[in-house]
Design brief:
Blueprint: H1 6-19, H2 31-36, E1 44-48, E2 51-60, E3 70-77, H3 86-100, E4 105-110, H4 115-123, E5 127-138, E6 141-151
Amino acid sequence: MTPSDWEQVSNIYSEGIATGFATFETSAPDYGQWDSSHTEHSRLVAEDNGILLGWAALSPVSNRCVYGGVGEVSIYISTQSRGKGIGQLLMERLIEESEKAGFWTLQSGVFPENTGSIKLHEKMGFRYIGKRERIGKIHGAWKDNLLFERRSSTVGMD
């Protein structure tokens, strides 16, 4: 992903927001806000002839040094590309890139209604670790969030 991808990345993010079960955000941020809240590495896009099909990126879970190898996954697929394996391709590469950067744990918070994301995380070796009940509101309604994590089998083993 490069800054020049932002318009398409933002559009795909907005499509996810519109579903009501992809994020607590209600609008896509500007690039500066997004850039400052994500790691400099592990920013990926899937594209076909210049058209972005989806994107994936990591956010640090904390600024405390002990959590330096733990990242939160963001993965969004364009409306017309969902169900075509793009999520799996992005997640496979995100796992590879995160491990190259020294990350030993990836985590995700997923709304229970987002069955496609749940299936993807399970397929990619994430394990369900619990549910945060009524953790936040979106459009005035409380939402639960399911927690998934994946531990690297190669990083952080010593």
